[in-house]
Amino acid sequence: MTTELANTGDGFALGVSNLLGQIEGNGGKPNGIVGQRREGNPSRRAFVRRQNEAGLHGTGFGREPDTIYGVPIKYSSNLDALPAAAGKIAAVVGDFTHAVFALRRDISVRFSDQATIDVGGTLHHLWQQNKTAHSGRRALASSPHDLNRMFGNITNAA
After folding, report:
1. Are residues 23 and 78 in the same domain?
2. Contact 73/15 with Cβ under 8 angstroms?
3. Which residues form the domain of 123?
4. 75-95 burial code (b ≥16 CB/10 A, e <16)
5. Cβ distance 117 to 133 under 8 Å?
6. According to the model, what pLDDT value does residue 108 have?
7. More confident: 44 or 93
8. Is 83 found in the same domain as 31?
9. 93 three-state secondary structure
C-alpha cells in the first residue's frame, strides 16, 4: 500500500491516517511508524516537535515519546528526509507483529592451517609457521508477512 505525501500543512499526519485506516480495514492493528532520521538534516523527530509547538495536536501528533494518533514513531537513517524527493519513501506504517525475523543460516566458522594468507603485504604461511586461520559468516534476514495488507509507505509522488 502506498499513500502520497502532501508537503503542505499536516500532510504527513494525513498520510499516516490514510495508511492506519487501510491497515485496520485489512484486519491489522497498526503499532509502528518508521520515519527518517539523518544527522545534519531535518529529522522526523524535529518535524514532530515543530508540529507539537505549532499546536497541531488535533491532527494526531503527540508529545515525547513521539507518536501520531497514539502509534509510536521509530527512526531510521535508511529513509528519505522530508520533503522526500519524487518517488522516494518518507515513512513506513504497519502492523509490525507481521514482521518476521528469521535466521537463514546459523553462524558458520571454518579453520585452516593449509593456506598462505597475505595480510597487508606480509605473507603468513600457516602450515610452515604453525598458525591457524579462521573465517566466520552469519546470515540473517527479516521479512514482513502479509506485506501488501499490513504495511504501507508514504511516498512523494510529486
Report:
1. yes
2. no
3. 103-138
4. eeeebbbbbbeeebbbbbbbb
5. yes
6. 85
7. 93
8. yes
9. strand
C-alpha 121/C-alpha 119 separation (Å) is: 5
3-state class (DSSP) for residue 53:
helix
d(CA 77, CA 80): 8
> In this structure, are 150 and 128 located in the same domain?
no
Q: pLDDT tens digit string along 11-47?
A: 777 888 889 999 999 999 999 988 875 444 455 556 6
pLDDT exceeds 90 at position 86: no
Partnered with residue 155 across adjacent β-strands are 4, 89
SS3 147: helix
Same domain assignment for residues 62 and 10: yes
- Average per-residue pLDDT in the chain? 76
Structural domains counted in the chain: 2
Residue with cell 598462505: 116
- Mark whether 72 and 128 lie in a shared domain: no
Q: Indicate the helix (H) or strand (E) that contains 114.
A: none
**How far apart are alpha carbons 142 and 103 in whole angstroms?**
8
Mean pLDDT, rounded, for 112-125: 91
pLDDT at residue number 70? 84
Give the strand order in the sheet containing 2-4.
2-4, 151-155, 89-94, 32-36, 71-76, 67-68
Locate 4 and state its grid cell: 502520497
